[in-house]
Amino acid sequence: MINISKTEAMALRYFMDNPGKDICVGDLKKLGLKHATAYSTINKLLKKNLIVKTKQIWKTRFYTLNEGNIIKYVPVDVSKIIDTRIFHALQIIRSVLIKSKNENANKIEFPDMVNAVLLIGLLSNIREDDPRMKAVLDFIKNRNIYIDDKKMEKLGKKILRAIWYG
């Protein structure tokens, strides 16, 4: 696990809430950071290899989350039990919730969202012969997994509807 400051954690969370999106210093200013602070925070995250530069348009540089390296941000005991591909899938679901107009959904914390997904698994009545269980067994035995980003977005929207109408 690497050490990060409160400001870096806030900026990193913004990147995690917007997976795959190109983010610039101006976007971090929306978090209440001054330009110089946002710029130095991005440089610190770059040095720690938590974000990567994606492009530059005129003088504006854009960055995105280094998803292959973000597992360092998660506490060591959690990183041992969460596969990076599953972590990415959970981030997709969380980004759907964060972007919503529902006050309760866009305040949801990552651990609560993980618990919600686990609860869905516990409450669903999937039989042993269901094809989804075969995928789970394949992951347990061989560490093979295929996660469809669109299906994760769909699951996030289902959770959002449950929050919205609940």
What does this structure look like?
With 166 residues, the protein is mainly alpha-helical. The chain has 2 domains: 60 residues, Arc Repressor Mutant, subunit A; 84 residues, no CATH class. Helix content is 55%, strand content 8%. It contains 8 helices and 2 strands; from the N terminus they run H-H-H-E-E-H-H-H-H-H. A two-stranded antiparallel ribbon has the order 1-2. Helix 1 packs across helix 3. The longest helix has 17 residues. The model has no long low-confidence stretch (mean pLDDT 78).
The shape is globular
Strand content: 5-15%
Radius of gyration, Cα only, in angstroms?
Answer: 17 Å
Query: Roughly how much helix do the residues carry, as a percent range?
Result: 55-70%
Number of domains: 2
What's the pLDDT, averaged over the residues?
Answer: 78
* CA(first)-CA(last) distance: 37 Å
The class by helix and strand makeup works out as mainly alpha
Largest sheet: 2 strands, antiparallel
H/E series: HHHEEHHHHH
Tell me the strand order in the biggest sheet.
1-2
Count of distinct strands: 2
**Helical segment tally?**
8
Features of this protein?
two-stranded antiparallel sheet, globular, mainly alpha, 166 residues, Arc Repressor Mutant, subunit A
Provide a compact summary of the structure.
The chain is about 55% helix and about 10% strand. The protein has about 170 residues and is mostly helical. The radius of gyration is 17 Å and the shape is globular.
Write the layout of secondary structure elements.
Blueprint (H helix, E strand, L loop, with lengths): L5 H12 L7 H5 L5 H13 L3 E7 L2 E6 L10 H4 L4 H15 L11 H14 L7 H12 L6 H17 L1
Antiparallel strand pairs: 1-2
Helix pairs in contact: 1-3, 5-6, 5-8
